[in-house]
Structures are given as C-alpha cells and as structure tokens.
Specification:
single chain; 2 strands; Serine Threonine Protein Phosphatase 5, Tetratricopeptide repeat; mainly alpha; two-stranded antiparallel ribbon
C-alpha cells in the first residue's frame, strides 16, 4: 500500500521560512526602536536650546526673510536665492515650514533636526543591513555609533546645520533605493527613487555630489560587474553632480567664503592630510571637541608633515587588506570619498576642520568597527562564549559612554554664550570666539562683558573688521557716538567693500543729526547691495524725521518688499501713514507688526482703534 504523504512534513519548510521572516522582522523592528530611543535620549538637551544667533542662525532663521513667506511666490524666491553662500532651497523650505508652524520658537527647529537625525540613523541601519545581506548586528552597531557619536552634535544641535541632517536623510534614502535597484533591475521604480532622492540631497546641501562615486563603491562591494549599462545609468548622476558643484563654487565665491589661506600647494596637501587623520582620530577619541578649530598660527609645525605619510600608510593598508576582505577598503573608501570635498584643498572659511564635516564620512569608519565586532562574534572554538560576550559588552559600553558624552555636548550648544565660551576655553587665542561672544552680550544688553570681549578680540587681531563694527555698535548703544564713528571709520578703512561699515556709520550720523552724511552712507549701502532692507529702512527714517512722509513711506515700502518681517519698519510706516491721516493703513501695519511678535505701544494702538 502506498504511503500517504505526511502533511506536516510537506508544510515544514515553508513554515520554517515564514518563521524565519517573522523573526527577522522582529529583530529589525527591535533594532529600529532601540536606535530611535537611544538617539532621542542622547540629544534630549538640544530641544531646550536657543538659537545661536551669532553664528549663522540669524542668517538662516531669525533674520532670514525667505522663511517668512510660503506662498507660491515665496517658494519661488526660496529656489532662486542662495543663503550664506550656499544654494540649498530644500533646507530653507524646511525652515520656512518650521516658521509657519511655530514662528521663532527654537524648540520646533531643534526637534525637527533631531527627528531627521533619528530618521537618518535608521536609514544607515537599513542601508548597511542591505549591504551586508541582512546582517543586523553589523548594521545596528554602525547606525548606533552614527546616531549617538558626540562628533555629530554640531550637525544636530545647531539649527543652521539643518542642511547636514536633511541631505544625509536623502543621501541614504538614495543609497537604499540603489541597492534595491541592483537586486531588482527589472523594476525601474527603484532607479527613479534613487535619482529623485539624490536630487533632493544636492538641493539640501551641495556636498551630496559625492553620491555617484559611492554608488561605484557599492557596485564593487556587492560584486556587480562593470558593464556599459552600469556606467550609462550613472551618467545623469554625474551630470547633476557637476552642475550643482559649479553652482556651489559660484555661490561661495560670491560671498567670499572661499578663503585664501597662506601657504603653497604643499601646505594645502598637508592641511588636507591633517583633516583626513583628524576625523579618524576624533572618531575613536572624541575629546576636546570644539565648534571652531583654528589653523596653526605662525610657521607650520614640523609634525604636520607627518600627516601625509600617515594618510598614505592608511590607504596602503586598506589596499593590502583586499587580499582578505573588501570590508576595510569599502569602509575607508566611503570615508575618503565623502570627506574629500571638505579637506580644505580649496579652503572654505577660516577653520582647519569642523565636527560637522565628519557627519556622513564617519559612517564608513563606523561600518568597519561594526564589521569587526561582527567577525569577533562569529569566532568558533573554545573561546567562542568569551568572544561573543566581548562582542556584546564592548559595543554596549561604547554606546553608553558616547551617549553620555553626546548628552553633555548637546548642552554646550545651548546658546551663543555657552558655545563660544567653550571655544574660548579650548582656543583662547581665537579672536573670532571673543568677537562672537561679545556680539551675544550686545544682543542681550550685557554691555560691559561685550566691551571686554571686543577689546580682547582686537588685542588678538588689531585689524579685525567685525570686531571694530561690533565695538562701534557697543559705543552706539552707550550713546558714545563719536567713539562709535571712530570704530566704523576704522572698519571702512580695513575693508571698504563691505556694507556694514557704511550702514552703521550712517546710523551714528543719523543720531548726531547729520542727515546729509547719513543719507550718503545709506545710499552707498544701497549702491553696493540693492537688497539691503535696513538701508532703505534707514533712508525712510531720515525722510520721516525731516517730515517728508511720502518719501519715507516709499523707502519703507522698498524695505518691506525685501523683508516683510522687519517689524521696526512696519511700526515706523504705521506712524508715517498716521501722520498723513491714513488711519486704516497705520492700523494694518501695527497689527501686522504685533502678529510678528513686536512689542506695541498700547497708547498708540488705542489712538488708532478709538480715534477721538
């Protein structure tokens, strides 16, 4: 008699496969929750932080008229206008959405940065897991290190670095889609997602142009054959990279942020090699972190010439490792490709290195660390249990230590005072730190501390344009107008191509009643920068004081067309309208200023709402 098939055996294999998938999903979900919770707790203090207005938060948020308007015309302006020498309209659009939801409450901006960073950390996990063919352990260690490393606090806790967390989110979205495309080339949707995500990444920060080279690394790591199709499919990416790279260089050059660091090409190679090593060193030993790392003063220290040798040695070791594994070469290759553009071959700004520049590049190094622990956990033999225990205990200990460091470092970015005071402690000869902290004290009306810092900045750097401007503003606040004029004149003599000197000198002349001189200064500002709303505002104020209300309103209109959020200008235009008997226009302006958060004279408001 024929034996009946065993139903249980027939269904055994599919059930085991189904059970394995369910277990895998549970592991993935657990890892994602662990990453999200750990990262959130590590950065919890950052949500309570203020704006760092003396270092770009003013340019990007508090004094940025672009974020005030989300109308179709406003969005069009966002996509047309670079900010602070950068073309990143998606970043500015995200800040505009923050403003629409919560105004100028910094908590909303900080929370958004943190949420995007958590999302990016999860995407790093998904990408590495796909790269390692579902090895969740390596992916979890890599993503966790990325999420809670203190070197990355600058990118997350500084609102102006929205561009960093945002481009990274789209960068890894594109990489994940690309790995899916490699495995499913019959499904073109993955290719379209890859290119669309890449476009969003470069529209968030231009440094994302390195992504097509990373695609080549992924091809190599996954053993994909280099074919004509593999090359042609990357042509659109490289064309976009070239286009956005040229746009970035043009924008940086227009505002003068491409600095001319003294030294030969050999010095630039030495500086770049230093950066290459420094970011590796600080990943493994993240101590003495700073928002600013100055170039060495005076002659270049001799030990700096060791860094090119160290760099070549590391690259050679990675090449040698190819005999045994692709892991090291891929990790180091990812690091080098993504860090290359910020290694100061073409110096941007005055800092030698910056923590934020390590944000994406560190993923390559962290992947190598994760892979190392993954290999240790797979060791067989008598010491298997001990090795597995170490492979679990050491990463857990690292996470706890780094998380505590990140929690502490997030508080350093509380405001301009705490951040610049930290720089002063670590680099007491940096004039920029004293100047910017003094600027903060000026903002919060702690004038004696402001003067001390400006004087210290000028003692370190006598021909410091910004410090002369700011000390002049201090004297202006103290009504010592002649001393203010001396500093503004000195600033103009240092650099006659910047508008701040003329605008501030015009303000001092205005207060002294020298309207003709003031008008010349403000007209000079407008000649140099036709989009300078404060200059039009000041010209309007002169005509206002002279009783020429129509001319005053005309200039106030020009100022507000540029910056609709200039509440001081709205209040003054209101008074000019009122002087002409245009009560409704005066009331509309006053209500708009109040809506934007300006303090309103209740007596004046009452006179408009209840005319006698």
């Amino acid at each position: 008699m024929a034996k009946k098939p065993d139903k249980n055996k027939q269904g055994g294999a599919p059930n085991r496969k189904s059970g394995a998938k369910k277990a895998s999903r549970k592991v993935t979900a657990g890892a994602i929750i662990l990453i999200a919770v750990t990262v959130f707790v590590s950065y919890l203090p950052s949500i309570q932080n203020d704006f760092v207005t003396t270092w770009d938060d003013g340019l990007y948020v508090t004094n940025n008229p672009l974020i005030l308007d989300l109308s179709p015309k406003g969005v069009q302006n966002i996509f047309r206008t670079p900010v602070a020498g950068n073309y990143h309209p998606i970043t500015i659009l995200s800040l505009a959405i923050n403003y629409r939801i919560g105004g100028f409450n910094p908590a909303g901006y900080h929370l958004t940065n943190l949420i995007i960073h958590i999302g990016s950390s999860i995407l790093v996990f998904v990408f590495i897991r796909a790269l390692m063919r579902n090895k969740s352990g390596v992916a979890l260690i890599t993503a966790m290190l990325f999420g809670i490393h203190p070197m990355h606090v600058e990118s997350v806790a500084w609102i102006s670095e929205r561009k960093d967390v945002l481009y990274t989110f789209f960068f890894f979205t594109s990489l994940i889609a690309y790995t899916r495309y490699i495995d499913n080339r019959s499904r073109p949707a993955y290719y379209l997602i890859t290119i669309f995500s890449f476009l969003l990444a470069v529209l968030s920060k231009a440094v994302a142009v390195t992504l097509p080279v990373v695609f080549l690394l992924v091809d190599y790591f996954l053993g994909r054959r280099i074919s004509k199709k593999a090359i042609l499919e990357k042509v659109p990416f490289f064309l976009l990279s070239i286009a956005f790279g040229l746009i970035a260089i043009k924008c940086q050059a227009q505002v003068g942020t491409i600095s001319k660091v003294d030294g030969s090409y050999i010095h630039k190679i030495v500086y770049a090699s230093y950066g290459f090593i420094a970011y590796i060193y600080k990943m493994f030993y993240p101590m003495n972190l700073s928002a600013y790392y100055p170039y060495p003063s005076g002659a270049l220290p001799r030990y700096f010439f060791l860094f090119p040798i160290l760099s070549i040695t590391i690259v050679a070791a990675a090449a040698w490792s190819l005999r045994y594994t692709k892991l090291i070469a891929f990790g180091l290759g990812f690091y080098f490709v993504t860090v290359a553009l910020v290694l100061q071959f073409m110096p941007v700004g005055e800092a030698l290195i910056a923590d934020r520049y390590s944000y994406v590049p560190h993923v390559g190094l962290m992947f190598m660390v994760g892979a190392l622990f993954g290999r240790v956990s797979q060791i067989q033999g008598q010491r298997k249990s001990r090795q597995k225990l170490l492979a679990a205990v050491i990463p857990t200990s690292l996470v706890l230590i780094l998380s505590a460091m990140t929690y502490h470092r997030s508080s350093v970015w509380k405001n301009s005072e705490t951040m610049w005071s930290d720089v002063v402690r670590k680099h007491p000869t940096v004039a920029l730190a004293f100047n910017n902290r003094g600027n903060y004290y000026l903002e919060v009306d702690v004038l004696d501390k402001a003067l001390t810092d400006f004087n210290q900045a000028l003692s370190l750097k006598p021909n410091y344009y910004d410090a002369h401007i700011n000390r002049g503003r201090y004297y202006f606040a103290k009504n010592n107008l002649e001393s203010a004029l001396n500093d503004f004149n000195k600033a103009i003599s240092i650099n006659s191509m910047k508008v701040e000197g003329y605008n501030n000198r015009g303000g001092a002349n205005f207060q002294l009643g020298r309207y003709e001189s003031a008008l010349k200064d403000f007209e000079k500002v407008i000649e140099m920068d036709s989009a300078h709303d404060k200059a039009y505002h000041n010209v309007g104020a002169i005509y206002h004081n002279l009783g020429k209300m129509n001319q005053a309103i005309e200039n106030y209109n020009r100022a507000l067309a540029i910056n609709p959020g200039n509440t001081g200008c709205l209040i003054q235009r209101s008074r000019a309208h009122n002087a002409l008997g245009q009560t409704q226009n005066a009331l509309d302006d006053l209500l708009r200023a109040q809506q934007l958060g300006a303090k309103i004279d209740n007596v004046y408001m009452d006179s408009l709402t209840n005319p006698r």
